[in-house]
Structure formats: C-alpha cells, structure tokens
UniProtKB/TrEMBL annotation:
The lineage of its organism: Eukaryota, Viridiplantae, Streptophyta, Embryophyta, Tracheophyta. Pathway: Carbohydrate degradation; pentose phosphate pathway; D-ribulose 5-phosphate from D-glucose 6-phosphate (oxidative stage): step 1/3. Belongs to the glucose-6-phosphate dehydrogenase family. This is Glucose-6-phosphate 1-dehydrogenase. Residues 9-197 form the Glucose-6-phosphate dehydrogenase NAD-binding domain. It catalyses: D-glucose 6-phosphate + NADP(+) = 6-phospho-D-glucono-1,5-lactone + NADPH + H(+). InterPro entries: G6P_DH, G6P_DH_AS, G6P_DH_C, G6P_DH_NAD-bd, NAD(P)-bd_dom_sf. Its EC number is 1.1.1.49. One of its GO terms (molecular function) is NADP binding. Residues 199-478 form the Glucose-6-phosphate dehydrogenase C-terminal domain. Catalyzes the rate-limiting step of the oxidative pentose-phosphate pathway, which represents a route for the dissimilation of carbohydrates besides glycolysis. GO terms for biological process: glucose metabolic process; pentose-phosphate shunt, oxidative branch.
Length: 484
C-alpha cells in the first residue's frame, strides 16, 4: 500500500450527501483502521461561513446513528472529528481554492514525511452545475505538487449530465483537465454487496454458465422501489426524473453486470470493456415498451411546478442485440412512493419443455437476487409436495445473508467505493465511454418526455404503480409465480 500523507477534501461539505453518506463512510473507514490519524487529514469545503466546530457539530449526529454505529463509538467519533478542518469559499473563484491549497500544503508539511508522497482526493458532493468551475479551480490551484510522487484524484457524483450532449460536454471539459485514471465517476450501486457478487456468481459457478442465455432465460427484471416520495428533494428531482435518477445509471449498471460476457481478466479495463460492449448492443428503445407514472401528490411539493411532466415511475424494456440475449427482454423498473422499498434482480427461466407434471401453472424457475433490504439470493423451483401425495409445489433454495453470514456487517456502498478511490482501483467506477453509451440509450426517450410527447400516468402513493406497467410485463413474457 502507498504511504505518505493523504488529504481528503469533501467539496459541498455542508450538503446532504456529504453529511449522510460521505462523512459517515469516511468515519467507518477510520474506525476500521483504513484511515490512519498520522497520515490523513479531511477538509470540508463549502460556501457557508462556518467554523470547524460548527461543521463537526453538523456531522456528529450522522456518525453516531449510522450503520454499524454504537454508543461505544463516541470516543472514535470525537477523534475522527478532530481530523476535519473546514475552509469556506466559493466554487468559481480562485481565492477560496488558494486558501484550501494552503491548508492542505501545511498539513502535508506537518505530517510529511520527507520520505512520503502526497495524495489528494477531491470528493465533489456538489450539484453538477458547478462541476466545470470546481474542476477548473482544483486544476489551477490545488494539484499535488510533491516531488516525491503521489497523486490527485477527483470523485464525481451523478447526475453526470442531463443527456448525451451535456454529458459529453462535461466529459470533454473534465477530460481536458484530468486524465481518465484520475477521474472516479461514482455509481453507488456498484458498491453494493450483491452487485459486487454478480461477476463471482456468474463466472465462478458451473451452475450458471450454461444456462445464462436466450435458450434458457425468458426474461430478466431489474427493479428498484422506494416507499417514499421525493421528500424535500423535489426541486432536484423534478429536473431529472426517475429515468435519470435511477434507471440510466443504477439499474443500467446492474444490467451490464448481469448481461456482459466474461472479461479477459479481473483488471478494471477488461471488465469495463465488456460493460461497454453490452451497452453498445442495446437497441433503440421502443416507446410502446415504456410505461411512465407520476404519483398523486407529487406536485403538492412546493418546489415542483404544478404542470410537471416528470415521471416518478418508469418501466422500460431494453433489448440486447447479440448472440446471447436476442429476444430476451430486460425489464427495468423504478418508482418512488410505491408500496415497498426493495431492489432486486429477477431472472425468469423458460418453461420446461414436454412438462409431464402439468405444473406450469404454479410458475417457472426464477432466480432472485435481492440487493436490498436484507440481501439474499433464492431460487424458486418446483419440488414434490412432501407427503404421500405425488403432486408438485413451488419452493425455494434460499441464501439469506442475514442468516448465513451473521458475523459480517455488510459495508455501506460508499465506504467500499471511497476505499477503492484511495487504493486507485477503478473497477467499480464508470468509464467515460460507458457513460456515453448509457446516455445514448436513454437520450431519445428522455427528449420525448421533456418535450411533453410522452406523459406519465397517475398512480396512488403506496401502490404498485400504474397497472399498465403490469400489463407491459405480462406482454413481455413475465409470468407471475406463486408461493413466495
Ligand atoms: C440515489 C437517488 O442515487 O439513490 C435517490 O438520487 C435514491 O433518489 C437513492 O433514493 C437510492 O439509493 P439506495 O442505496 O437507498 O437504494
């Protein structure tokens, strides 16, 4: 592992993302010994004029109540908070960034290590509108200058652009300032335990290898549901909608890992090469295979315009034009204010040919990977009903992580991904060409929605979403199974 001083700079330090995700993830890394006090310093940067202690007070509560936290942590919390310093400044003027650079350099001089190098990690927990200026400022004022080596890296959050053109413009701008190995485009779904498990599952198990194709699989669903609405984020959400917020990034990334070919090796570039190929094989979306919805009450949010056409629910069918997947619908579904909170992948197999048990009505074999809550994988299969009867029932082979791996606390996605950025591992980050291919798939549909050519159907808060989505699913070949 690299040694030397590490400065982690959280830009947008007083915002929601930083408080709820970035700082708690850093704290968990600290608690587990991945961030050593004698090497690390954390800087918060934002426009608000507050003191170091005021920032610490804002963060403290989130650390004490985060995942894996307990009252025993309070001493750790205090020590961790002491590592944080705050610098106030604007996002588009050099003055603040010069001050930030001075603070970082002073820290480097004090901690360094004549022998060590300096590492600077800039985490942009910011609205995308300021990315261009912030990246420019970092480049002008804050790059690592140590002769002893080290690096400067930046982490950017989605939304990365609003459509193909705006994303490309942003990519070009950032690409002129930083090299691709310095840019970490974060998609936190790639940090989830069961998403990271997908490649292992597919390529380390003989069970799946011969079955994972159009000959055996009828359809695949990738589903995201939330049982709450936009909750104070209406202003942001209305500009983006569910497709940009969830489907074009989180669900599409999952699709890549479910559908891609075996990479040459586990090297990040090999994996990402295969993901890009899948994305490039996706056919243009057919508007007939899309259902949009908006929950009733969405426009009551004062930050949402009364005539908003923004979907809070969407089911979109993608079709992959290649030898493995021709004819298999990939049904991506995401919705806010639904009846449950769940993210899962459902792989539904075809009917058994020449069925002698007449068990077709009970349902098909289905392999379900539940990403959250309560990580699990289960296979729905037909077995003989135990007892004297020679009839069949649907049952499950079930691997629930909570039961099987009781001693393990599953890390938060952000924790894992931040550690990767420090280690320089880009495997779980989105490469520029991947991002472009992802926008190519969705941009025509998004433009039609933005232009009001396609309208969301109303659905009740707390429901399953518009019934039309269920009909689309059935039309695509999905068969509802019973017994689970
Ligand atoms: C974010 C979206 O990227 O993911 C939010 O902007 C959404 O709208 C969140 O609530 C869901 O993340 P998770 O990890 O809770 O599924």
């Amino acid at each position: 592992p690299e040694s030397g001083c590490l400065s982690i700079i959280v830009l947008g330090a007083s915002g929601d993302l930083a408080k709820k995700k970035t700082f708690p993830a850093l704290f968990n890394l600290y608690r587990q010994g991945f961030l050593q006090s004698n090497e690390v310093h954390i800087f918060g940067y934002a426009r608000t004029r507050i003191t170091d202690d005021e920032l610490r007070d804002r963060i403290r509560g989130h650390l004490l109540h985060g995942k894996g936290a307990s009252s025993e942590n309070s001493e750790d919390v205090s020590k961790f908070l002491q590592l944080i310093k705050y610098v106030a400044g604007s996002y588009d003027a050099e003055e603040g960034f010069r001050l930030l650079d001075k603070e970082i350099s002073e820290h480097e001089v004090s901690k360094n290590s004549k022998e060590g190098s300096s590492r600077r990690l800039f985490y942009l927990a910011l609205p995308p509108s300021v990315y261009p200026s912030v990246c420019q400022m970092i480049k002008t004022c804050c790059m690592n200058k140590s002769d002893l080596g080290g690096w400067t890296r930046i982490v950017v959050e989605k939304p990365f652009g609003k459509d193909l053109d705006s994303a490309e413009e942003l990519s070009t701008h950032i690409g002129e300032l930083f090299d691709e190995p310095q840019i970490y485009r974060i998609d936190h779904y790639l940090g989830k335990e069961l998403v990271q498990n997908l490649l292992v599952l597919r390529f380390a198990n003989r069970f799946f290898l011969p079955l994972w194709n159009r000959d055996n699989i009828d359809n695949i669903q990738i589903v995201f549901r939330e049982d709450f609405g936009t909750e104070g984020r209406g202003g942001y959400f209305d500009e983006y909608g569910i497709i940009r917020d969830i489907i074009q990034n989180h669900l599409l990334q999952v699709l890549c890992l479910v559908a891609m070919e075996k990479p040459v090796s586990l090297k990040p570039e090999h994996i990402r090469d295969e993901k890009v190929k899948v994305l490039q094989s996706v056919l243009p979306i057919d508007a007939e295979e899309v259902v949009l919805g908006q929950y009733e009450g969405y426009i009551d949010d004062p930050t949402v315009p009364d005539n908003s056409n923004t979907p809070t629910f969407a089911t979109v069918i993608l079709r992959i034009h290649n030898e493995r997947w021709e004819g298999v619908p990939f049904i991506l579904k995401a919705g806010k204010a639904l009846n449950s909170r769940k993210a899962e992948i459902r792989v539904q197999f075809k009917d058994v040919p020449g069925d002698i048990f007449k068990c077709k009505k009970q349902g098909r074999n289905e392999f379900v990977i539940r990403l959250q809550p309560s990580e699990a994988m289960y296979m729905k299969l037909t077995v003989k009903k135990p007892g004297l009867d020679m009839s069949t029932i649907q049952s499950e082979l079930d691997l629930s992580y909570g039961q099987r791996y009781q001693e393990v606390t599953i890390p938060e996605a952000y924790e894992r991904l931040i550690l990767d950025t420090i280690r320089g591992d880009q495997q779980h980050f989105v490469r520029r060409d991947e991002l472009k291919a992802a926008w190519e798939i969705f941009t025509p549909l998004l433009h039609r929605i933005d232009d009001g050519e396609m309208k969301p159907l109303p659905y009740k808060s707390g429901s399953r979403g518009p019934v039309e989505a269920d009909s689309l699913l059935e039309k695509a070949g999905y068969v509802q199974t019973h017994g689970y």
